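User: I'll paste a sequence; please echo it back and then give the predicted structure.

Assistant: Echoing your sequence first, then the prediction.
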Amino acid sequence: MISKLSRLAVVSLGLMAVVLSGCSQYVKKTDYDAAIAQLRANDQKQQQQIDNLTQEMQQKFAKYDAQITQMAGRVRVDAIAHFAFNQSTLRDQDKPLLEDFAKTVGAHYPNAIVTVEGFADPAGSKAYNLKLGEKRAEAVRDYLVSTGKLSASQVRAVSYGKAKDRLVDPGKSGDQGGPNRRVTLVVDFAGEQPAAS
């Protein structure tokens, strides 16, 4: 009987040790709540930065024919640069807005990540227009970097070519397709604002 009791005690102690060791892997509710609160605070901070950047750009670019929109934590600046048919040369009339964009982002959001999106009208093959859109995006990216306000590591170029769901005037090309031959800027990440001195 004693050996049965001692075996039962040993088994009970063993089970209790297994149960208690399993509990050590759980996260305490206070730690979980603190982590969630920190994530929410970071999310609110990033959203505030995006809100500030959007408002500043709307004020700064009111003199240009540019539309500023906020989408899923990013800021999009439409109607930045347009191109002649089958060309990727940046027009002089688009340079002042690009300079202002680089100054605004560079001065207030020096760690921002910007994507330059290049587009083409529907004339030509898909492959050709992807390459043309890329050249347009690269021309704008290179100009932004040349201002000295944004570094090459902050600005990337992508092409959507003649993607149907991204055309401003679907089906329009040649003289009527100017709005489709464009580049837009997207601030994907505003980064940290430097502390006010």
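Residues 29-60 form the longest helix (32 residues). The beta strands are 67-71, 74-82, 113-119, 155-161, 182-189.
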